[in-house]
Design a protein that fits this description.
Blueprint: H1 13-24, E1 60-62, E2 69-73, E3 98-100, E4 123-125, E5 133-134, H2 137-141, E6 148-150, E7 156-158, E8 161-163, E9 165-167, H3 170-174, E10 182-184, E11 189-190, E12 207-209, E13 216-218, E14 231-233, E15 239-242, E16 255-257, E17 262-266, E18 279-281, E19 286-290, H4 292-295, E20 303-305, E21 310-313, E22 325-327, E23 332-335, E24 349-351, E25 356-362, E26 374-376, E27 381-385, E28 402-404, E29 426-428, E30 443-445, E31 452-454, E32 466-468, E33 473-477, H5 480-484, E34 523-527, E35 530-534, E36 543-545, E37 550-553, E38 567-569, E39 574-578, E40 591-593, E41 598-601, E42 615-617, E43 622-626, E44 646-648, H6 671-676, H7 716-724
Parallel strand pairs: 2-3, 3-4, 4-6, 5-9, 6-10, 9-11, 10-12, 12-14, 13-15, 14-16, 15-17, 16-18, 17-19, 18-20, 19-21, 20-22, 21-23, 22-24, 23-25, 24-26, 25-27, 26-28, 28-29, 30-32, 31-33, 32-36, 33-37, 36-38, 37-39, 38-40, 39-41, 40-42, 41-43, 43-44
Antiparallel strand pairs: 1-2, 7-8, 34-35
Membrane topology: Single-pass type I membrane protein
Keywords: Cell membrane, Glycoprotein, Leucine-rich repeat, Membrane, Repeat, Signal, Transmembrane, Transmembrane helix
Transmembrane segments: 688-710
Length: 727
């Protein structure tokens, strides 16, 4: 028996030297960026050492027979720096067949023309690597062995400057690459703007991604009939025209993405022959036809976006149980909502907004879909019933984050919202007929969000005792009727235990928390100048914080009727006019902050009435006249009055021995300085670990999610939120 001894693999010295030269051309190979949060990054070049065998280095592949380097997988390798003349040693590796440099930062350098030396390449991936400039079209076109070419997602716009790859002619680039299976040029600016007819001859083509390439003209319809085509992405080419042809049975197409193009016309019945189709996005096009004639046959569908077209008809009576997302927003669909939606257990997103659906529908139809995250039924002709939602042995809507029920003829508040839905982030019940009393609600906290708009007069709860709108973008006048409805704050010694519907637990609308119960919530707040930690909101606390918004106009006199109010903070707004003299009636007031507004006139408070006042700030307004003297006004820091050029102390009526003069007048802090101020500057400082919120018809607000998602790869949720106007 002859035992063959395996040959020890050794890389060629010249190739090892070229790899080391490539490594040393980068000033850093171990500092990974966070630009691609979904990509696993690793500094692979750190394993490249002088004394080692390059065939054993991470990311390096050598041929088993010849020991030549035939593959480099440096995707997400934390490379930063230019990839041009100093790194051209890489392009002397003429035996390379696969080169992947994606997800690195090449600092807006150009693709070296020397890439044409790699004549044996079958796979080239330079995507998402911050490359810019003209693609070396002539040199790349000589690599006729290419099976996969990916130059996508190098686009970036900074200060109205374009950074990205460009190519003069798509036809000139690929005309000799007849073996291509994958052509990915998304975000590459194609100057010729036409999709060449010759692509319809690429019989091996499986994936064609041309998202946002500034394409124009007529799309060659024959490309749809390529025998192996599985993925076609033409999104965001707004002037690219086309139509859907007849499709034969057996088409391998799995993903068809045409959103925001000028495609349109009638969807052919043969579209139902695309039995392998999993992902369809033809939103923001101009397609017509009844959807039931073709949609019901597509049993493998997972992701459906048909929004913003002119589709008609009724929703098919059956859908693929695999479906994750169904978006039919803004069409001409009609009929009733099918009851079989309750069987779509994989459904995560459902939007039926802006159609002509009719009839009665029970919210219970969707309540037990465990994966449902987004549900929009708004702006139809539905009569929504929120009764008969069973909560026995199961939590309704266990994953729901967004719920839109605008104009659904609701006559009562959804009972499911009386429960602890700890995932809900966005709720819109506007334009309904809500009549159910929710007046027992006593705590309304919308602190540190991005709510905006005007608070309408019809919004109010008589039992409110804590209202915190701090750090939002509410605008307009503070409605007097809203303040007048706070009857519970008018009593001097008001206190009451919480009961049913006094709190609506939507904690994730604001910030994460752990281990909550219906009444176990804690906070840190400033009371009488001292920071105190409470394990729960005290039953005797009465406070209003409207600070750090864009409220304008005069302060309503109605505040003076809230004799039980202990804390009032209206600072950092655009309020003007005089301070109401009725403020002297707030005998329980302990903390008052009206700073950084545009208030004018004199300070009307009567020190003999406001005996509980211990924290006071009127700084940076346009106030004038004498500062009130006597009682606790003698204890206030002079900085409480700074920034008001017209204020003065009457020396002949001075009752406070420790008050000598106002501080030197200063300008208000700059916006930058104010942004750097800690939230704790608010006199009504409440850091909520459990957030309580109540909604009622008439409060129209917008919610904007603050997390900016920058990953370049397509993700349906990102796109969905963008279309919702959430950010």
């Amino acid at each position: 028996m002859v035992v063959a001894q395996s040959k020890e693999k050794r890389c060629h010295d010249d190739e090892k030297a070229a790899l080391l030269q490539f490594k040393h051309s980068f000033p850093s190979t171990n500092k990974c960026k966070n630009d691609w949060p979904d990509v696993h990054q690793k500094p692979k070049l750190e394993s490249w050492k002088e004394g080692g065998d390059c065939c054993s280095w991470e990311g390096v592949e050598c041929d088993d027979r010849t020991d030549h380097v035939i593959g480099l997988d440096l995707s997400g390798s934390c490379l930063f720096g230019s990839i041009n003349s100093s790194s051209n040693a890489l392009f002397t590796l003429t035996h390379l067949q696969r080169l992947d440099l994606s997800y690195n930062d090449f600092n807006y350098s150009h693709i070296p023309s020397a890439v044409g030396n790699l004549s044996r390449l079958t796979h080239l991936d330079l995507s998402s690597s911050y490359l810019t400039g003209q693609i070396p079209q002539q040199q790349l076109s000589n690599i006729t062995t290419l099976v996969s070419l990916d130059l996508s997602y190098n686009y970036r716009r900074d200060d109205d400057s374009y950074h990205g790859l460009e190519v003069h002619s798509l036809e000139g680039l690929v005309q000799r690459m007849i073996n291509l299976k994958e052509l990915h040029l998304s975000d590459v600016r194609i100057s010729s703007s036409r999709v060449p007819q010759l692509l319809s001859n690429f019989s091996s083509l499986e994936s064609l991604l041309l998202l946002n390439c500034e394409l124009r003209g007529e799309f060659p319809v024959a490309i749809f009939h390529l025998p192996k085509l599985k993925v076609l992405d033409l999104r965001d080419n707004h002037d690219l025209r086309g139509y859907l042809p007849d499709f034969p049975s057996g088409s391998p197409l799995k993903s068809l993405l045409l959103t925001s193009t000028s495609f349109g016309g009638v969807v052919p019945p043969s579209f139902g022959n695309l039995a392998s189709l999993e992902d369809i996005d033809i939103s923001y096009c101009n397609f017509t036809r009844e959807i039931s004639s073709w949609l019901m046959n597509l049993t493998q569908l997972i992701d459906i976006d048909l929004s913003h077209n002119r589709l008609t008809g009724q929703i098919p009576s059956n859908f693929s149980h695999l479906i994750h997302r169904l978006d039919l927003l803004s069409n001409n669909l009609e009929g009733t909502i099918p009851t079989h939606f309750s069987n779509l257990h994989n459904l995560r997103y459902l939007s039926l907004r802006y159609n002509r659906f009719v009839g009665s529908v029970e919210l219970n139809l969707f309540s037990h879909l465990k994966k449902l995250t987004i549900l929009f039924l708004s702006y139809n002709h539905l009569s929504l019933s929120v009764k008969n939602i069973s909560t026995k042995n199961i939590t309704p809507f266990p994953s729901l984050e967004f719920l839109g029920l605008v104009s659904c003829n609701l006559s009562e508040f959804p009972t499911i919202l009386h429960n602890n839905i700890n995932t809900l982030e966005h709720l819109d019940l506007s334009h309904n007929n809500l009549r159910e009393s929710v007046t027992p609600l006593s705590i309304l906290i919308l602190r540190s969000n991005r709510f905006h708009g005007v608070i309408k007069d019809g919004f109010g709860f008589s039992n409110l005792r804590v209202v915190n709108l701090f750090n939002n973008s509410f605008s307009g006048k503070i409605p007097s009727k809203f303040i007048e409805t706070m009857i519970h704050m008018r009593a001097l010694n008001a206190s009451r235990k919480m009961g049913y519907m006094e709190q609506l637990l939507l904690p994730n609308l604001f910030q994460p928390f752990e281990d909550f119960g219906p009444f176990d919530y804690s906070m840190t707040m400033i009371n009488k100048g001292l920071e105190r930690n409470y394990m729960k909101i005290p039953d005797t606390l009465f406070g209003i914080d409207f600070s750090s918004n864009n409220f304008e106009g005069q302060i309503p006199d109605a505040f003076g009727d809230l004799a039980g109010l202990q804390m009032l903070n209206l600072s950092r707004n655009n309020l003007s006019g005089h301070i109401p003299s009725s403020f002297s009636n707030m005998k329980n007031l302990e903390s008052l902050d009206l700073s950084r507004n545009q208030l004018s006139g004199h300070i009307p408070m009567d020190p003999t009435k406001l005996t509980s006042l211990s924290s006071f700030d009127m700084s940076y307004n346009n106030l004038s006249g004498p500062i009130p003297q006597g009682n606790q006004f003698c204890t206030f820091d002079p900085t409480s009055f700074e920034g008001n050029l017209g204020l003065f102390v009457e020396p002949w009526n001075e009752q406070c021995g420790n008050v000598r003069s106002l501080p030197q007048q200063q300008q208000p802090p700059s916006p930058i300085e104010e942004e750097e101020d800690d939230d704790s500057e608010s006199d009504l400082k409440i850091e909520w670990m459990i957030i309580l919120i109540g909604f009622v018809s008439g409060l129209v607000v917008g919610v904007i999610l603050g997390n900016e998602l920058i990953a370049r790869k397509r993700h349906w949720f990102v796109k969905t939120l963008a279309r919702m106007g959430i950010w």
